[in-house]
Amino acid sequence: MIVDTPVRGSDSGRPIMALLDLLGRRWTLRVIWELREAPLSFRALQAACEGMSPSVLNQRLAELREALIVEAGTEGYALSARGRGLLQLFGPLGLWAEDWAEALRQQQS
Amino acid sequence: MIVDTPVRGSDSGRPIMALLDLLGRRWTLRVIWELREAPLSFRALQAACEGMSPSVLNQRLAELREALIVEAGTEGYALSARGRGLLQLFGPLGLWAEDWAEALRQQQS
DNA sequence: CATATTGCTTCTGAATCAGTAGCACAAGAT
DNA sequence: ATCTTGTGCTACTGATTCAGAAGCAATATG
């Protein structure tokens, strides 16, 4: 249940810790990322995440909704205004990742 | 072993997915965050993460080192130049979290 | 009415994590 | 030389979380 874990780490009283903990659960970042452009239905979201199990997806969606980051509308699940704000902080992440992947490739060869 | 999982999700060939997967493992974001100011020893890092188990910490450090985000020096573990670049992208995260925590508080009352 | 789609729930086995204990090594004190 | 102290880390066991398949109730569609 969600109520049992108000957000792991939030007992420290430091919001950043609660946030890092929330984002550090499997698939959470990915789900936010997949909602970056348009709302997605439950099953579309599941497909976008390469078939992640519905039980976990449901759990993540519940957590993100309770955290006011994701909301459910007629078109499916979407980022809230607040969620879009969070996503913007990750903005250049794609660019960083490209450069990073290049470095990893060179390291391995 | 690390070799077994070159980084989960990297098979998609999209670096961003590999990155989100790496960062989405428990404690990974937190470890990067705790190294934001100064290098920390293994045990200092463990303490900063509220006593996270050494086995997992060791695993995360190995992953982050292989990913060229963290490096081990004489003063302990530190972010690499690349790692600091990644951290900068998370820069305003603390501010966002403060605002977010305030919204959650109002929601609950 | 039949079929399809959607949002889930339930279940079981597998992977991951938590927590304790402790080892091997190095530096400093006695 | 030896005793302590601190360090990085490994091994182990039990708890939690996740994966994957199956399927159900509700709504839509033919």
Descriptive account of the structure:
Chain A is mainly alpha-helical and 109 residues long. Chain A has helices at 15-23, 28-34, 42-48, 54-66, 81-89, 93-108, and strands spanning 70-73, 76-79. Chain A is globular and about 45 Å long. The first copy, chain A, has 6 helices and 2 strands; from the N terminus they run H-H-H-H-E-E-H-H. The termini of chain A are far apart. A two-stranded antiparallel ribbon of chain A has the order 1-2. The interface between A and B is large, with 38 and 38 residues. Chain A binds a DNA duplex (30 and 30 nucleotides) through residues 25-27, 41-43, 51-59.
Give the SSE map.
Two copies of one chain form a homodimer.
Chain A: H1 15-23, H2 28-34, H3 42-48, H4 54-66, E1 70-73, E2 76-79, H5 81-89, H6 93-108
The first copy, chain A, binds a DNA duplex (30 and 30 nucleotides) through helix 4.
Brief digest:
With 109 residues, chain A is mostly helical.
Key traits:
homodimer; mainly alpha; two-stranded antiparallel sheet; about 55% helix; about 110 residues; DNA-binding; 2 strands
**Uncertain segments of chain A of ≥5 residues (pLDDT<50)?**
1-5
Order of helices and strands of chain A: HHHHEEHH
Query: Could you tell me which chain pair has the largest interface and how many residues each side has?
Result: A-B, 38 and 38 residues
Summing up helix and strand content along with how strands pair, one would put the structural category of chain A as mainly alpha
- Oligomer, anyone? homodimer
Q: Work out the strand percent of chain A.
A: 5-15%
Report how far the terminal alpha carbons of chain A are from each other.
46 Å
Q: Biggest sheet of chain A: strands, sense, closure?
A: 2 strands, antiparallel
Strand neighbour order, sheet with most strands of chain A? 1-2
Number of strands of chain A: 2
Q: State the helical fraction of chain A.
A: 55-70%
